[in-house]
Please model this.
Amino acid sequence: MVLVVLSAGWLLVAGVLSLLAAIKLHAPGMLADYAWLTYGRLQPAAWNAFVFGFASLAGLAIALWMTARLGGTRLVGTGTIILGALVWNVGLKLGIFGLLAGESTGIEGLEIPRFASPILLLGYLCMAAWVPITFGRRRPGEVYISQWYLLGAVFSFPWFFMAGHVMTVFLPLRGVLQIAAQAWFLQNLLVLWFGFLGLAVIFYLLPKLTGVAVPSRNLALFGFWTLAVFGGFGGLTRYSGGPFPAWMLSLAVVANVLTVFPVYAVGQNLLPGLRNQGSALKASVPLRFAAFAFLAYLVAGGLGALNSLASVRYTTQFTLVTVGLDQLTLMGFFGMAALGALYFVVPRLLGRDWPRPAFANLHFLLAAAAVAVIAVAFLGGGQAQGAALNDPELPFINVVKRYLPFASSGTLAQLLFLAGSGVFALNLLLALVACCRAAWVPAAKALVTPLSAEVKA
Model:
């Protein structure tokens, strides 16, 4: 619950920063007198608040809960986990304040100041180390598919987090190799960290809430290993046509195309379970979030493989398409999967249902609308932007004018997502208040009753 509450707080912070950054894209004059509110500072602060604030803390909370739940054992190391959460939170706050103060490293995805990243790593180790330890104490039996992905995510994060920061910030590689390392880090962050955590959630929630078992364990195993082997090597397609050795770009394209196989495996295993589940989807908010995340994963995976082809990148390079695919993966796939898991987990942690079920339904509608708007605006707008950039007869100012409506749509999407986040945070606050009242009121009455009896006597 400590991790859940912290992640909910960072979700609100990220929403506010993202909304301000989105507005600055088409209204740069707003709050232009404040250096710490310029787009170059707001955007990385919003990215890091969402990625390392909400998404990573929520992912760790879900990983810890699912490891104990699926293993049929108690979670161990709770004191160290809480300490790690506080250390992580301190490191992230220092990093966000550093970004707003202009201390960014200037490397996309790795902007957080160098004094904050070791603190984040220390906090992570204090929290995540107990996932494999708890897993080792599980009851005898088969290892579930979700557990494969949880362990893969937990072990991969410190590896690429340390390597990425060392190769780009602390002991930076020379020339274009530094950018290759940055692209590798971003790809691993999206695929091996959030991708694995999101797949663990949907492989747990969809079969459980629909009552339909995963039909092929072997196909799931094939999907897991193909994603683990090839998923992290496709990052350089972001810079297709750049000054890199040809074999590196070719490897990135092949790796991205081969990720179609895990997407196919996931789709084949989980899509049959969603057929004829209309009543279940209406009745279960977590199932709706998980189903939306599953569909977003299929769309993002297919479009990501298609976008890696040179013929497509000729139009989409340096456009909103890359940002749109990142947002579809983060918000549409992992964000929705994590929120669905939290709606499922929190009542089991507190021992009571959500106090406002209507808030949960409203949150789903707002979040789903936000993802749909940003996906359509950025992916469709990126195509229009790319076609305009490739037109030599079109002045650049006209290209910018074509871009502005889609940027405005991004602002609407961030506003919708922030509104949904506020509804979720309020619902969580009400649940915590109700839980504390149920625990403290009887205890207070028990203390007062003997005093009242003594006064009467």
